[in-house]
Amino acid sequence: MIIIIQCKDQVGLVAGITNVMARFALNIVSLGEHVDKSNNRFFIRLNVEPTADANALKQELQHVLPDDAEIAINPLPEKKIVVLVTKEYHCLADILIRNYFSTLGAQVQAVIGNYDVLADVCRRFDVPFYHISHEGKEKPVFEEEIKQAIDNYQPDYLVLAKFMRILSPDFVASYPLQIINIHHSFLPAFIGANPYRQAYERGVKLIGATAHFVTNQLDEGPIITQQIIPINHALNVTDLTKAGKEIETAVLARALQLVFDDRVLVFQNKTVVFD
Amino acid sequence: MIIIIQCKDQVGLVAGITNVMARFALNIVSLGEHVDKSNNRFFIRLNVEPTADANALKQELQHVLPDDAEIAINPLPEKKIVVLVTKEYHCLADILIRNYFSTLGAQVQAVIGNYDVLADVCRRFDVPFYHISHEGKEKPVFEEEIKQAIDNYQPDYLVLAKFMRILSPDFVASYPLQIINIHHSFLPAFIGANPYRQAYERGVKLIGATAHFVTNQLDEGPIITQQIIPINHALNVTDLTKAGKEIETAVLARALQLVFDDRVLVFQNKTVVFD
Amino acid sequence: MIIIIQCKDQVGLVAGITNVMARFALNIVSLGEHVDKSNNRFFIRLNVEPTADANALKQELQHVLPDDAEIAINPLPEKKIVVLVTKEYHCLADILIRNYFSTLGAQVQAVIGNYDVLADVCRRFDVPFYHISHEGKEKPVFEEEIKQAIDNYQPDYLVLAKFMRILSPDFVASYPLQIINIHHSFLPAFIGANPYRQAYERGVKLIGATAHFVTNQLDEGPIITQQIIPINHALNVTDLTKAGKEIETAVLARALQLVFDDRVLVFQNKTVVFD
Amino acid sequence: MIIIIQCKDQVGLVAGITNVMARFALNIVSLGEHVDKSNNRFFIRLNVEPTADANALKQELQHVLPDDAEIAINPLPEKKIVVLVTKEYHCLADILIRNYFSTLGAQVQAVIGNYDVLADVCRRFDVPFYHISHEGKEKPVFEEEIKQAIDNYQPDYLVLAKFMRILSPDFVASYPLQIINIHHSFLPAFIGANPYRQAYERGVKLIGATAHFVTNQLDEGPIITQQIIPINHALNVTDLTKAGKEIETAVLARALQLVFDDRVLVFQNKTVVFD
């Protein structure tokens, strides 16, 4: 059972929380704790065994925690997700494979594409694919169609697996801290379009990818994880794009694993990741 | 104040320990915890503020812990070390520089070399250098001379900064878990002499270095940290050796930082590193 | 057009070869060259444009090269491969996805498994799957059945994508430098079975994977590429195995890309990789 | 002997150049070649043995190259450098150590500091230190004093080893492509002041360092090399700064090695690095 808590910091929080665990005869398999001193904020993640009644546990925890405490007790055995794509296959295919072999830590309910090029690969894995084109539509109409497709499934998270349209503030506000995006640069470098071209023009010696929660500041949401690979002068924009796909796939896979394992807590515009 | 504890695992340990912290009005700045389930062993490291009487704290902790508990409460404000070297300068010079600028986390009391080539660099930093040659001596005589030089200083740790002689079981037993060595391969690959030649002959695509505590099994002691660098066919043995020095220096520096910060706990032949 | 050559080293080889290119009006887009001085061996890889008659070019090259020269002029537009598997899906699925989206640099002709658990995923991608069980058979019989399945396709390479049976010297000899294996450790550490258990027991701080050509020395063939990931004390054998699958997939994918792009030359037991 | 050439691209350049080598009976130990197709620019680096008259060789090369060719034939056995610092010791100390043990590939002629805190460590290595304060001076006066100190030594390169003053266009123009800086971020992220604070505020999961040639666009000159290290939420600005020093030291050391080995060619605002 995973328990994650954040609240304002004060003396005795760990003792209070772990006393509750002891009273419920829960053994602490692992414990991650962080205090953000500049914000006086306390974060904890506990993996406990065997298990207990979540409501009773939550009630007891509330007695030892400040009023502002946010407590989550492993709400679902497994997350449900909807994936949004455009034309590139690499991130989606990785998700579909893990989903098919039950190693994703979540269930892919559906895939939505603004082109239909990835419909066939979804069909091969018996995953519903919705082709919702953005062409010839006002953005609110386009997004409303997407929302309707999503809301059938009540997913825990939306995964933007190289979805190349910018979502409106209204859309984003409908899924607060539920939208995970993969950006093809080591943010904050190369915000916006064509990061590989920007990287090529600048002559950098490494390229990267960033998985982050989507907020209404483009490419500015809380970062979940980032990785880079070294490159050199011999790679042109096409080569960089190709090399970048490998790191994008790896970074998104890692971010999803962290989120689906309840290892990522968000406060303001930053994450605490207990890995 | 750093508190590190290891003992057999049982329910309620974290609660018991953190209750003691609360009673002493100690705030937990950071907490690392690990349970080795295959050995039923519990490990914890706490960084607490402000401070308390170490003896009183230890006594209270003993009441909530099993009898076998090993408790260390940040025993010294700063560690004292003696460094053993042969001819290569890179690890020693890095240590001397950090020592001189007070960023090592320990004080270098003396350097002992079985050659005198590194005497001058020690002199430049006003660090005592003992030239104790192994030539023409039985090993027990050689080691007894080293011991006498060391024991003037009562160091917390001995650092083998590319000391190229194998120490006898008797010598090692005199400094249990106090001797830190840098080995020039990613152990357990290339145990023994000439790892860079071995790496070259085998045609590996990465080389590494390993910092470990010394035990009486050659190159088999508990590993503190390891890193690697990618290499390619163009590097001959000389090139590998040169490239390797960079990673050796970095790995030893990292290991010393971890040990001097009380982040490394040892159980049987493995380490728990709270970084 | 890719041209790869290896021969004994002598003065003027690059001039001789590039003169031939100039006579055929071939522009050198990229050129990688290596001299193994300890073996007096010369290696070169040229990427030239536009194109020329391969036979005529080869004949001219032979005039400027020593008699022992091995010359390959991009023999096929695309390689053909057969993949051998046991039960683990991760490497195979990655290959099938790249094959389906035509980014593998080779065509998967068939998959052979000694269990049938991966039959379904192959079927979903319309790739023939042969279930050839090793159970209740002498090894020569088992291998003969595999050979027959393979030889229908005349593949350029066999890829052992977590094929967990040791192949006999006879089998290996039938496909010299054509069998590529992924081994789940940073060789030469942890040769043989259960490398993740070995890594756990030893308490290493990094685990890796190695892609290599198969020879009759188990896990001793020429290494194509290797990578590692950092690990820590919190990971048990199951966790290491899971984490290792990510790096195995990445390393095999990278090795196949290098081989299929004609970037890997083999001499004795080592590779020269022009990347 | 190292030969580096850049010029506009055309068919037959490699043949022409290597024919000259053959005529001078020079054996090509290694050869790196690059064509920047978007700029139609050719780059080559040759390491040849034994040696030849540089002027005669250059003349012959000019006959086979376009008029715009820039040819450098290993102009000096060893480079001379002057190092500029402010207060931080880590990059300077690394340079001084390598200089003292003759592994820098260059000779440190002098160190110039706008504070005097690093005077003592220079004195310990018998390297002249000039304390030239910027306080109470107009920038042109300050820079003129620095120039005079530098020009005594006619160095090949100036190394800004954490020199925290912005140099004027006039100063920079006096040393074109001769000034190497270490910037404490993975450029182009976090240009300007306090990159570690910027990194902390943004919540990135990796920090880096960039070595580059200085031009009159702040932090925008040609990048020589970059590296990153992973970080997490537990590190505050002070921790990031401390961790960053390790990577700054490593990146600057690597960049200097590349430049001093004549491995770095510059065209427009980018580098070609033959490593």
Outline:
The structure is a homotetramer of 275-residue chains. Chain A is an alpha/beta fold.
What would you note in describing this structure?
Four copies of one chain form a homotetramer. With 275 residues, chain A is an alpha/beta fold. Chain A folds into two domains: 72 residues, ACT domain (Alpha-Beta Plaits, 2-Layer Sandwich); 195 residues, 3-Layer(aba) Sandwich (Rossmann fold), CATH 3.40.50.170. The first copy, chain A, is 33% helix and 29% strand. Chain A contains eight helices and 13 strands. In chain A, the strands form three sheets. In chain A, strands 7-6-5-8-9-10-11 form a seven-stranded mixed β-sheet, with helices on both faces. In chain A, α3 links the parallel β5 and β6. In chain A, α3 packs parallel to α8 and α7 crosses α8. The radius of gyration of chain A is 20 Å and the shape is globular. Chain A starts with a strand and ends with a strand. Chains in contact: A-B, A-C, A-D, B-C, B-D, C-D. Chains A and D meet through β11 and β13 of A and β11 and β13 of D. Chains A, B, C, D: It is an enzyme of class 3 (hydrolase). Chains A, B, C, D: It catalyses: (6R)-10-formyltetrahydrofolate + H2O = (6S)-5,6,7,8-tetrahydrofolate + formate + H(+). Chains A, B, C, D: GO terms for molecular function: formyltetrahydrofolate deformylase activity.
